Amino acid sequence: MSVKHGLLALLERGPMYGYQLRAAFDSTTGGTWPLNIGQVYTTLSRLERDDLVAALPENEGQRPYEITGHGRDELKKWFATPVQRSDRPRDEVAIKLALAITTPGVDVAKVVMTQRTATMRTLQEYTRLKTQPGDLPWLLVLDAMIFQTEAELRWLDHCEASLLRYEPQTLPQPADVEVPR
């Protein structure tokens, strides 16, 4: 998700200034993606430049923003467009394990076990949070986090099983790789 679209969605509720937007974003997502206030104001500046929001007159030292018609069109388009897997951030755990397998001296099984332990603790924390009351937006975000964490545990099981069958291949050494000119 982009901060841009998150702020547009929040401004669809009504005019807000930067700190209100940050608080509303944190409240809606349960603080799972904390926004830096500088990030909020930088994004608001870009949104204003692109005519997606408009600054309103200052009120008690705060400048509220409102969504424009172009902003509403952009928001509708965003909600109507599915998120592609390629649009999501790179998975650091997958990259870490891929590199661990090919890095001499790394105990890959230990890397997997360390990650599994941390992931299990995270799942336990999310499950504990699930027992507390919350608004539907936060509960849906929490469910997504639980499902993703469960999927990571299943994937780590798969990695562990794959490691048992893995036979390392000889990789070319840096001196063996020809550099194109």
From TrEMBL:
<feature type="domain" description="Transcription regulator PadR C-terminal">
    <location>
        <begin position="90"/>
        <end position="163"/>
    </location>
</feature>
<dbReference type="Pfam" id="PF03551">
    <property type="entry name" value="PadR"/>
</dbReference>
<dbReference type="Pfam" id="PF10400">
    <property type="entry name" value="Vir_act_alpha_C"/>
</dbReference>
<protein>
    <submittedName>
        <fullName>PadR family transcriptional regulator</fullName>
    </submittedName>
</protein>
<dbReference type="InterPro" id="IPR005149">
    <property type="entry name" value="Tscrpt_reg_PadR_N"/>
</dbReference>
<dbReference type="InterPro" id="IPR018309">
    <property type="entry name" value="Tscrpt_reg_PadR_C"/>
</dbReference>
<dbReference type="InterPro" id="IPR036388">
    <property type="entry name" value="WH-like_DNA-bd_sf"/>
</dbReference>
<feature type="domain" description="Transcription regulator PadR N-terminal">
    <location>
        <begin position="7"/>
        <end position="77"/>
    </location>
</feature>
<dbReference type="InterPro" id="IPR036390">
    <property type="entry name" value="WH_DNA-bd_sf"/>
</dbReference>
